[in-house]
């Protein structure tokens, strides 16, 4: 398993090795000791899975605030996404910056998103299934979101506002500057 820093070093790409033969391939998709050697020590406690039927579905930008923030380890089981992590830690040198990584089922890459980041993705294909591990249980009282297309962040999404398929919750999320101090 290779762990690669992104332009925001706290966000990491995880590239599991695949061992193939005539039948297909085998891969270790999670290995705590390998991640720990790369500085990822999140004690994952819950697995989540989402399915998005239409291409252009945007989910996010979501996060949980202290005292129950969530680190996430994201992977795609079918289809492809543009996965995005936004630094929402006001004291961070990379505050309001983001990392965007294409993840797909064929490549098997994953993205680790630590505490203090908002997370979202856009489906690049129809029928996308995403699985992710989190290190804190879901807590409705700590669940928050910021607008997916906040102009102060300037994420280059592969869909326009008119094309994006959004939930009402995500459509009504505030911009980061309206959300107050989060971390």
TrEMBL record:
Annotated InterPro entries: RmlC-like, RmlC-like_jellyroll, RmlC_Cupin_sf
Pfam families: dTDP_sugar_isom
Family annotation (Gene3D superfamilies): Jelly Rolls (2.60.120.10)
Keyword Isomerase applies: yes
EC number(s) given by UniProt: 5.1.3.13
UniProt GO MF annotations: dTDP-4-dehydrorhamnose 3,5-epimerase activity
Enzymatic reactions: dTDP-4-dehydro-6-deoxy-alpha-D-glucose = dTDP-4-dehydro-beta-L-rhamnose
SUPFAM superfamilies, per the entry: RmlC-like cupins
Subunit structure: Homodimer.
Purpose: Catalyzes the epimerization of the C3' and C5'positions of dTDP-6-deoxy-D-xylo-4-hexulose, forming dTDP-6-deoxy-L-lyxo-4-hexulose.
Family of the protein in this entry: Belongs to the dTDP-4-dehydrorhamnose 3,5-epimerase family.
Protein name: dTDP-4-dehydrorhamnose 3,5-epimerase
Organism: Methylobacterium komagatae
